[in-house]
Design brief:
heterodimer; A: 233 residues; alpha/beta; Rossmann fold; globular; B: 418 residues; alpha+beta; 2 domains; 10-stranded mixed sheet; two-stranded antiparallel ribbon
Chain lengths: 233, 418
């Protein structure tokens, strides 16, 4: 059963304005259904790593395989399409477009991806179902986003990441704006829904507290050889 | 694509700053189209007012002045032409017709023009069109009057109504020719020329109402309407007259002869060339106005650019979210283009709508005071071109914020740190 959904090999990355590599990873594999927690302090290259996995940035060298497909071989447009087709993304905060209703926000990926639209079926129904399962009161569905609490907003963002069954959910510190009760609840719901539809969660945080709930965890500084280079200097 | 939906909803979210931008575009379009409309229609009205008249003759004055008072009924004659001179020139071998014009009285703000029935036969406007009667016929009797279309409309006159003429142009109570009322026998069709706003009576009628007047006031000896009708009513002088010649080749010769007429100082003008001269003078002013209006439109577009640039920061997160859910980086540019186009197109529509509303309201005022008949025509090719240029410029300008946002969204990726 275990084939890697994400496979990075010999990745190096450097911003064109900088002289040194910021990322140098020999090997990183994420297996289907094995939710992964990546811990890294700020400045450790977390954001860069996520930009590479989502195909926003391209590695300077090495190979990035997502679901067996090499991102290096795709054009920019293909990568953008691949991202919306196969990946759901949750940010730390401000995930939602303030001028769209909750339901429209959740359906956004289906506007850009035929595949996810197809898998979601009736997108409006599916959005309602997900929001229901994530405990968002129904009277808020057509309300403006800013009437929601932070916890509710993050759950709406989760629904958006989940709709249309993307294979991978990328979560960039999604719980850092939540209190500890809400954090645990958020994570439980995320695992529940992801498992139900067979999505693999990659969760990035500086906060090692959340690591305890994950079957797999990685310390970014351990796999990023740049840091050890620095330590050697 | 759903991008349009996103663009519209996003724009609606920033409706206050965008509606200000729309308003400033609308104002500049209003100004530009307004100036363009008025100059074109003013030119049309001027050019179309008289046609197929070879010469206009009046007391010696500048050609423009003669043209303005005799045909456009703007301003006053400096002096009169004696009726004898008129008859002398009318009798010239080459003269086909000569129509006298006698101005100076008014009726409730509308000018009264004395002439004879030849006027209805020979006066031509626009493309050689002759005057048509909506109702009735030319004046036959001494106290008959024919009124222009606008006069009938404004004062709700119908055939058979009696009207009182006023002495001079101001309707003073003590200067009414109330002892000799006129009866309306004809109403003309609309011509979009000053004729619409004129009351036409016979020269003899003009003479009759002034028979017991001396230098602008009523003389103590009153002469009744019936009695006046039986007196000799040949006028001593008229304001001007129009000439049509048998042979157009002789226009310049006759013009020269009239200008050198011995018995009294006269001016003869060729209407077409005086109109062209007049328009040349006005035309330069009109071009300056157009340039100023175009600059105002530029200012409006710059305002739009400023608005778009100031929203760049607050929209950074929005772009990142859209990128995360699958928008391509070039979609970011498209969003700015759509928004900018939307603002300018709405601004153009609003500006045009406002212009038509304002023209509709001012139509009669401008016709009354300036003799220009503004019509609410749909935009012509030139004006559509203005719209097109405005929209193209807006797209071009939107590339600036669009490209900045595009570069940023490539840099930021999904993770904006704000």
């Amino acid at each position: 059963m275990n084939k890697p959904v994400i496979h990075l090999s010999n990745i190096r990355f450097r911003y064109s304005t900088q002289a040194k590599d910021i990322l140098n990873i020999e090997n990183l594999q994420v297996y289907e259904g094995k939710h992964l927690f990546i811990q890294g302090s700020s400045g450790s290259g977390k954001t860069t790593l996520l930009n590479i996995i989502t195909g926003i940035n391209q590695a300077s060298s090495g190979d990035v395989k997502i679901l067996g497909k090499s991102l290096q071989k795709m054009s920019v447009i293909q990568r953008d399409q691949f991202r919306v087709d196969e990946l759901g993304v949750i940010f730390q905060q401000f995930n939602l477009l303030p001028y769209l209703s909750l339901l429209e926000n959740v359906q956004l990926p289906c506007w850009f991806s035929k595949q996810r639209k197809h898998l979601a079926g009736n997108t409006s129904q599916m959005a309602k179902r997900l929001l229901n399962e994530l405990d968002i009161p129904e009277n808020l569905f057509n309300k403006a986003v800013n009437t929601l609490s932070t916890g509710q907003q993050q759950r709406v963002a989760m629904a958006r990441a989940l709709i249309g069954q993307p294979k991978i959910i990328i979560a960039d510190e999604p719980t850092s704006a939540l209190d500890s009760n809400n954090r645990k609840r958020f994570l439980d719901l995320l695992f529940l829904e992801a498992d139900k539809q067979g999505s693999t969660v990659v969760f990035v945080s500086h906060d090692s507290y959340m690591a305890q709930y994950f079957p797999h965890k990685i310390e970014l500084s351990e796999i990023n050889r740049i840091n050890s280079d620095l330590a050697a200097v | 694509m759903r991008l349009l939906t996103i663009a519209i909803k996003s724009a609606w979210n920033r409706k206050i700053s965008l509606s200000l931008a729309i308003f400033s575009i609308a104002m500049s379009i209003l100004l530009l189209l307004g100036v363009d409309n008025i100059r074109k229609q003013a030119k049309n009205t001027f050019i179309n007012t008289i046609s197929q008249t070879d010469l206009i003759v009046g007391a010696r004055s500048s050609p423009v002045n003669l043209l303005l008072y005799s045909i456009f009924h703007i301003g006053n004659a400096t002096n009169n032409v004696s009726y004898k001179t008129y008859q002398h020139i009318k009798a010239q071998k080459n003269v086909k017709w000569a129509v006298p014009v006698s101005l100076g009285d008014s009726h409730r703000g509308f000018r009264v023009m004395g002439t004879n029935s030849d006027y209805f036969r020979y006066y031509r406007y626009a493309n050689a069109q002759s005057l048509q009667f909506q109702q009735g016929s030319p004046f036959m009797m001494l106290y008959d009057a024919v009124i222009g279309y606008d006069v009938a409309q404004a004062l709700r006159y119908k055939l058979g109504d009696e009207i009182i003429l006023s002495h001079g142009l101001a309707a003073l109570k003590q200067a009414q020719h109330d002892d000799k009322p006129f009866r309306i026998v004809g109403i003309l069709n609309k011509t979009n020329t000053p004729v619409d706003r004129t009351v036409l009576v016979s020269l003899e009628g003009i003479e009759a109402i002034h028979i017991d007047w001396q230098s602008g006031t009523r003389s103590p000896i009153k002469i009744s309407a019936d009695k006046a009708a039986k007196m000799g009513l040949e006028p001593k002088s008229i304001t001007a007259f129009m000439l049509g010649l048998e042979n157009k080749m002789t226009i310049f010769r006759l013009q020269r002869e009239i200008n050198q007429y011995h018995n009294e100082p006269l001016s003869a003008i060729i209407p077409g060339s005086t109109l062209a001269y007049l328009w040349q003078t006005v035309g330069q002013f009109e071009q300056v106005l157009m340039v100023v209006s175009a600059l105002v439109l530029m200012t409006g577009l710059m305002g739009l650019l400023t608005t778009l640039l100031t929203t760049l920061n607050e929209r950074r997160r929005e772009m990142a979210v859209l990128r995360a859910v699958g928008a391509h980086a070039y979609h970011v540019i498209v969003l700015f283009m759509l928004e900018s186009m939307f603002v300018v197109v709405t601004g153009c529509l609003l500006g045009t709508g406002l212009l038509y509303a304002i023209l509709k309201i001012l139509q009669s005022f401008i016709a009354n005071n300036y003799g220009i008949h503004l019509m609410l025509n749909p935009p012509d090719t030139q004006q559509l071109l203005i719209f097109l240029i405005a929209v193209l410029l807006s797209i071009l300008l939107s590339l600036i914020p669009g490209f900045i946002a595009y570069k940023r969204s490539l840099q930021d990726g999904l993770m904006v740190k704000i």
